[in-house]
Amino acid sequence: MTLYAVEAIDDAIDATREFLWPFDLGRWARLALVLFFVGGAGGTPPFQFGGGGPSGTGSQTPNVSGIPETVPPPGGAELAVIAAIFGTILALGLAFVFVGSVMEFVFVESLRRERVTVRRYWSERWRQGARLFGFRVVLGALTLGVIGGTLAAILWPVFVGEAAVSVGLLFLAIPVFVVVSVISGLVGGFTTMFVVPVMIAEDRALLSAWRRFWSTLTGQWKQYAVYAVLSFVLQLVAGILSSIVTVLAAVAVAIPFGMVGLLGVGLLSVSEIAGWALIGLAVALFVIAVIVVGLFVAVPVQTYLRYYALLVLGDTEAAFDLIPERRAAIRE
């Protein structure tokens, strides 16, 4: 049996080279902008447990007459400020996810047509991007709900003060977290890599595209199982190489900005305002430069991974092939 995921490894390299070279700064810059949103990933912070209480070693009782026995709860104004802060953060996060969802279609269209035009592809595909956005929000909420609900059930006795944390139950919950995370990752990854191209190829809504793709997925599940394994390995290797290149580039970029920062340190003795302003400018420009370098490094990596998925998808079902001409050219 021919394994399409194995054959596509080298073909994706050829497709990436033909698309990105010779180097075109405008094309790379537009792709870097797209990947700023497409590659933007967030995560839930780890749950932290901790606590402590007052303790003393002396026999004397400290004088606490001037300390209020209880801290007054926050009033309406404070709660409004807190709610506004969290609401703003949530709105910005959702807006970023929405833009990233539409940019998925911009990215695929760029590879399909071999021309990067953000505005045009956005206007053509933003409605499908909105459906992908909704799907991602629901999938993320379900994932967090299952994990959070399981953890809350285990820790409920601690919250109500009836018992301590059960280490055994926490260990039993680990497989649940792993299974839920793997399933969520596969569903999200297959939606991005395969269902989005199906939506473009047949101009379908997301759930309709999933139903259309499902028969191909189940009919050739071995092909997609091999893809899932190889894709994980390729992403791991690509991530390591990208990190190395980005770090080396960051070191090179740090030299000139470090000199500017040292100049700011020297100015502190003359004018603290000017010195700190120069130091802050150097740090800000360094951070921006590292982000830009990281995005440019990600351009060939993400282009390769997306071409790899498109080649596998087209091999398993010709009707979903978005790059037939490029496929034929690299396989002649």
Note down, in words, how this protein is organized:
This protein has 332 residues and is mainly α. It has one domain (4-40, 81-331). Helix content is 79%, strand content 0%. The chain has nine helices and no strands. It has helices at 4-20, 25-38, 76-113, 118-159, 167-202, 206-219, 221-267, 272-316, 324-331. α3 (76-113) packs across α4 (118-159). The two termini are 21 Å apart. 21% of the residues are buried. The model is unreliable at 40-62 (pLDDT under 50). This is Glycerophosphoryl diester phosphodiesterase membrane domain-containing protein.
Mean pLDDT: 87
Please trace the helix and strand order, writing H or E for each element.
HHHHHHHHH
Radius of gyration: 26 Å
Helical proportion?
Answer: over 70%
Net shape: globular
End-to-end separation in angstroms reads 21 Å
Q: How many domains comprise the coordinates?
A: 1
Question: How many DSSP-defined strands?
Answer: 0
Biggest β-sheet: count, sense, barrel?
A: none
Which structural class do the helices and strands define? mainly alpha
Low-confidence stretches: 40-62
Residue share in β-strands? under 5%
Individual helix count: 9
List keywords for this structure.
membrane, 9 helices, mainly alpha, 79% helix, 0% strand, 332 residues
What's a quick, concise take on this entry?
With 332 residues, this protein is mainly α. The chain has nine helices and no strands. It has one domain.
